[in-house]
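Following the same procedure, sequence and fold were stored together, as reproduced here:

>
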Amino acid sequence: MNKRMQKELARTGKPVYRLHFLGSAGGVTGSLMLVEMFSREGAKRFLLDVGLHVDQQSLDFQNRLPKGMTGKDIDFVVISHAHLDHSGYLPKLIKEGFTGPAYCTPATFDLMEILLPDSGFLQEEAVKRFNNRLTRRAEAGNQSASQNTAVSKGGKVRGGADGGKQKGKRGVKAVAVNASASAVADAPRLRQPLYTEEEARASLKCVKTIDYNVRTKLAEDIFVTFTDAGHILGSAVVTMDLGSGANKRSLCFTGNIGRDNPPVLQTLAQIKGADYVITESTYGNRVHKVRDRHARLAEIINKGYERAKQGKKDGAGVILIPAFAVGRAQIVLDDLRQLMDKKMIPNLKTYLDGRMSIKATDVHRKHANLLNAETQAVINAGGDPFATPRFELCREWTDSARLQEPQSEPIIVVGSSGMANGGRIVSHLSKRLSGPENTVVFVGYQGTGTLGNALVRFADGNPFSERNSTAHKANSDATPKTANVAGKSIKVRATVEFMSDYSGHADGVDICRWLGKFKQTPKNTFVVHGDDDALAGMRDQIVSRLHWDVTIPKAREVFELS
């Protein structure tokens, strides 16, 4: 707080509220916002979300808090939902000194118990691979340097600093010392993970849970209310009440919000509004295609089945569906079950491949009260919405490996990750992409630089493909002829399909419709969580439809909530 604010606080006693945008401002991931509340009783500081920069991981190794501030200065954290770009920075914040509680819904906590340790494990593995490569290069370089400083039979040194003119033992000793010093100077700078699996697991001890629609006191004159965001299980719109009386301010942070009437989950809950709003904009400049999702999926599966029956050399074909372990996999399984029950597709043997996907599905069953009426009805009738008639789990790698062997009949494999940038699905793609009897169905947004993006960047129905319209015109096929899978170039003969119908994000129209039902007009609305086009599109829609004041904050920009 600057001197002007200090004098104003001392003179009037009026609290000062400041909002810092430390992540997701001008970008899609890395959700992190700091709220400061200064009063005569002292200062309170808390974070809205603690997300990783999934697309720019190097930023998480930098100091993300304001200059001079550490994790020790943060009193508490509020987490909107379990996705790593909203929760995955928590273990790092604790390493930086944070000791306060972190608040979220019970379902979010259960999903964080799965996602955070896995994040730590993957970071450890990535660092291990990088350091091994670095060490091998350094050893090869040192071996080469050692050979270049070998001593000839005549006592001459080759490759020394003096061009090999030194003779005798003194010359040999000097070169040995220089070579040793060079080796030390050239020693590889090994990386460290942002945090380990063990540190991630330990970080969960600080988490406290709050149910939906329960106004809860977090500190003096600071209250929070979670309402269902309809994005993933446990996701919440966060409404904060700060201060009291005439000095009270309310702040709404949407986190990520879902579409109207989403499959499996309950729909986005309406709130009364707030003085200040922070809204996502992932699809802010796009409109989701409205069509019969089941009919489209059935069409893809049926064509894939006919294709799969033609398999000969490697057995019957396989229909691969890369899907995010949390949310997407459960919806896909529910849809496949419904289609088979209605006999819209063949009763194919279906596998859920991956321990994280299996655990996340169990969490959905645990929190059945958060699912929509249709899904709850299946459970109440003794059924399992996430299991097809011929359903099997692949808990171990050995189970997954057996699916890569020749199959006697067409099968469906649902596995993570959804963007095919890791996990067991990569092994399946490495085996199956080259076979024309196989089908790959991507069911959601594919981030830049991922294998999924490389395979569907020109696909029909991909709402992000217009960025590559020029490149698309230059390509006769929507699918590339080759793909780099786990470092190997593989010919793509399989049929690759894309469905945007499974997006868990509201589009710009949905968000405006929800905001338009607020009973109060915000003093300002901040637009975050989007690329430049999405941010601008969301701002323009809010201004034109609702006539509100809208700001697109810049990274590390600070606002006073007057």
Q: What stands out?
A: Residues 3-105+210-287+505-560 form a domain with the Metallo-beta-lactamase; Chain A fold (CATH 3.60.15.10). The chain has 16 helices and 22 strands. The first helix runs from residue 3 to 12. Confidence is low (pLDDT under 50) at residues 156-177, 179-185, 466-476.
